[in-house]
Design a protein that fits this description.
Blueprint lengths: L1 H29 L3 H29 L1 H18 L6 H17 L3 H11 L4 H30 L1 H22 L30 H12 L3 H31 L4 H26 L4 H18 L10 H12 L5 H12 L3 H30 L3 H20 L5 H5 L12 H6 L1
Helix pairs in contact: 1-2, 1-3, 1-4, 1-6, 1-7, 1-9, 2-3, 2-4, 2-5, 2-8, 2-14, 3-4, 3-7, 5-6, 5-14, 6-7, 6-10, 6-13, 9-10, 9-13, 9-14, 9-15, 10-12, 10-13, 11-13, 11-15, 13-14
């Protein structure tokens, strides 16, 4: 299950890598401003996040196999149809709507569902591996896409991504299963009384399940602290660095292929960093981990503007290594805290926390493009992102005030103790 989920996440990751490679070619071919193109990326990022909680609930109703296979088909269609576009609204429809819905249906909410259903022991490590697969797959695609775009044009790169996403569908349909019971086994490391072996949410409407989980979680302080920190996480990764690092490096004379290779290195180091974060999540208080990750990321972003140059000098490589280790290391502790505070509904609640991640990413993607259009460089965006990351560190430390929830444990299979007692009774 973990292996098939990993391949599916990598297959969907390719298209999320294309915007940063195609910003400049689209600008040169169609004359669209970077702000306009970034707006399409923002729609993608926003739908990517907003779809996640509904998809997590939909997986309960229709099953993992149908939702993931359908999501990959949407990604393939959105990528393939871009070769026919002539107007900017068509870019928004393909990049933003189709691919946003497709990738959002198998985002980190999918990771949380797989980890919560199939694993008790090593759950944090599995979340780390699957998260690294999705994020690193996105970044490792970059050199290939940059080379295809440079040698054959952006349309060949878009069609390549469409083919990769579609090629994963047969594997998903053949091997993906909904629950351990489908194979006559229990979750890895589960005991007979383990909450993890129970359904994540009660059967019913996916929309009703997603909205009721949000309504109940939004009454709690931990939800807003986690969502606020994760919104900043999205702004400082996918929204800013993932979208604008390549054009920012190009502004300083670096070739697009070299800049894409640097982002690919971020993906490689991210694999080690996220897996290590999953291992640490099984052993260290997740609140301290989040505070440390955000603080280190903020400091690195404050230094970044002084590192850009026409060549990849050693100082930039050190930044890439450091930043890559921290790219999505925040995911395993955030998933763990959602389950701790919200019980077996943690996967759906994490979908909403992830939606805030993409909301932050969408704002940063458009905002950084507008900063570049107005000021002529990205410096203000980098400094602002660094300050925001330090703020996220403080939000994570604020979660330590509620540590008493850890000692009492979840109230039941559907709701964790972050919910007020009255809400638990009504549920």
């Amino acid at each position: 299950m973990a292996a098939v989920a990993f391949v599916a996440l990598v297959g969907a990751a390719g298209f999320r890598a294309t915007p940063s490679v195609m910003l400049q070619p689209l600008h040169e071919e169609f004359g669209w401003s970077l702000g306009t193109i970034s707006a399409a990326v923002s729609v993608n990022l926003l739908l990517f996040g907003l779809t996640a909680p509904f998809a997590a609930a939909l997986m309960e109703k229709l099953g993992l196999r149908r939702v993931v296979a359908g999501a990959l088909v949407l990604v393939s269609a959105g990528s393939g149809l871009t070769v026919f576009m002539q107007q900017s609204w068509q870019l928004i429809l393909c990049w933003g709507v189709l691919v946003g819905l497709g990738t959002g249906s198998m985002a980190l909410g999918f990771v949380a569902v797989v980890a919560n259903r199939w694993f008790v022991a090593r759950r944090g490590l599995v979340v780390g591996v699957l998260t690294a697969g999705g994020a690193a797959g996105q970044l490792v695609f970059l050199p290939l896409l940059a080379r295809l775009t440079g040698d054959h044009g952006w349309r060949v790169a878009a069609l390549t991504v469409a083919a990769v996403a579609l090629s994963v569908v047969p594997l998903v349909w053949w091997r993906l299963r909904d629950r351990p019971a489908d194979l006559g086994v229990t979750a890895y490391g589960a005991g007979p009384d383990d909450v993890a072996s129970l359904p994540v949410v009660a059967p019913g409407s996916a929309v009703r399940t997603a909205l009721s989980s949000l309504r109940q979680a939004a009454r709690t302080r931990p939800f807003w602290l986690l969502a606020g920190g994760f919104a900043i996480c999205g702004a400082t990764t996918n929204g800013l660095v993932g979208t604008h690092f390549i054009p920012a490096a190009h502004d300083h004379g670096m070739t697009q292929t070299t800049a894409a290779s640097l982002l690919a290195l971020v993906g490689l180091f991210d694999i080690a960093g996220t897996i290590a974060s999953g291992w640490l999540t099984d052993r260290v208080d997740s609140r301290w981990l989040l505070a440390g990750y955000y603080a280190l990321r903020g400091l690195s972003l404050l230094v970044l503007p002084s590192l850009f140059a026409a060549t990849a000098h050693p100082s930039m490589v050190v930044f890439i290594l450091f930043y890559g280790l921290d790219w999505v290391a925040t995911v395993p502790p955030t998933v763990a805290l959602c389950r701790e505070y919200f019980g077996a509904r943690g996967a759906v609640v994490f979908g909403w926390v992830f939606a805030s991640h993409q909301f932050g990413a969408a704002i940063a993607a458009t905002g950084a493009g507008l900063v570049r259009d107005r000021l002529g460089d990205y410096d203000a965006a980098w400094y602002g992102a660094g300050a925001l990351a330090l703020t996220a560190s403080l939000l994570s430390l604020s979660l330590l005030i509620g540590r008493r929830h850890r000692d009492t444990g979840p109230a039941g299979p559907g709701i964790g103790l972050a919910y007020p007692a009255a809400v638990i009774t009504r549920s």
